[in-house]
Automatic annotation (TrEMBL):
InterPro entries: Bact_StressResp_Reg (IPR051932), RsbRD_N_dom (IPR025751), STAS_dom (IPR002645), STAS_dom_sf (IPR036513)
Keyword Phosphoprotein: yes
Protein name per its UniProtKB record: STAS domain-containing protein
Protein keywords: Phosphoprotein
Originating organism: Heliomicrobium gestii (Heliobacterium gestii)
Domain STAS: start-end pairs: 159-270
Source taxon at top rank: Bacteria
UniProt xrefs under PANTHER family: RSBT ANTAGONIST PROTEIN RSBS-RELATED, RSBT CO-ANTAGONIST PROTEIN RSBRC
Keyword Kinase carried by entry: no
Length: 282
């Protein structure tokens, strides 16, 4: 059954929206450079309307039930939007928490002299806003993690370019530390490049790889094996003296792989494998 405060919110939700907007616009931390006051008003009005409809259904505290689904969906969308707009997780969660202060200002004149009503009716509503604020924080965190993951994937793609050196010859310069995630991207990009260009020689240049351990060596060998299954022979170039010593100490067998100390040496070998001759210009 709707409570006294519920009836009050249904009758005066426009007043609640006005008080909430005044409170938000007076906040020094509100960054209107990222969001216009018109967009904030539209967003806040939609939230107040949905919030009042949800509590009018008689369920104040269980936000997992169906009447709160529009609110949960709205907060998830707000979190995603504010993530892209550059708001912090605290600012995003405070958007919901600030509604509590507006509610207090609205109802204090009605129940100030009746603490039993305040305890019985307002405190459950306050706990619900706390839950919604935490839900907003969690939604923001998930949205930001998805953005970071997508950006990392894009950076991995950009950091492992497959270069077509000549007909039938590809080069893949590797720079930076190699881990399992990046080596998987390297393998996928190389195999895709072999298929798209119908190449039969691929150069993996590790000049820019700072260290080679057992795991990195295993990943490189898996890439070489996968390329062979595609009909391409790999040449590993850029093996510096310290890396050569490390590979020997680790007991990694590269006897079945063509290696060269420099990219120039690998290119020379690749031309020979393709029966190409570089003739100086006259």
């Amino acid at each position: 059954m709707p409570t006294r405060i519920t009836h009050l919110l249904m009758e005066r939700k426009d007043n609640l929206l006005q008080i909430w907007m005044e409170g938000q616009l007076s906040e020094l931390s509100l960054r209107l450079d990222r969001m216009t006051s018109q967009d904030l008003y539209r967003q806040s009005k939609e939230f107040v309307d949905a919030f009042v409809r949800a509590i009018a259904a008689g369920n104040v505290e269980d936000i997992s039930r169906g009447e709160w689904e529009p609110i949960r969906r709205m907060l998830a969308q707000i979190s995603v939007t504010r993530t892209h707009q550059g708001f912090s997780p605290t600012e995003t969660a405070n958007y919901v928490f600030s509604l509590k202060e507006a509610l207090i200002r609205l109802v204090q004149g009605e129940v100030n002299s009746q603490m039993d009503i305040f305890v019985q009716e307002f405190l459950p509503l306050s706990r619900t806003l706390d839950k919604l604020g935490l839900l907003t924080f969690e939604s923001y965190t998930r949205a930001r993690e998805e953005i970071i993951s997508r950006q990392q994937q894009e950076m991995l793609e950009l950091s492992t370019p497959v270069i077509r050196v000549w007909d039938g010859i590809l080069a893949l310069p590797l720079i930076g530390t190699l881990d399992s995630g990046r080596t998987q991207v390297i393998m996928e990009n190389l195999l895709r490049g072999i298929q798209e260009t119908n190449s039969d020689v691929a150069i993996l240049d590790i000049s820019g790889v700072p260290t080679v351990d057992t795991l990195v060596a295993q990943h490189i060998m898996k890439t070489v094996s996968a390329a062979r299954l595609m009909g391409a022979e790999c040449i590993i170039s850029g093996i510096r003296p310290e890396i050569a010593q490390t590979i020997v100490q680790l007991g990694v067998d590269l006897s079945m792989v063509k290696t060269r100390a420099s990219l120039a040496g690998a290119l020379r070998l690749a031309y020979e494998m393709r029966r190409l001759i570089v003739v100086p210009a006259k």
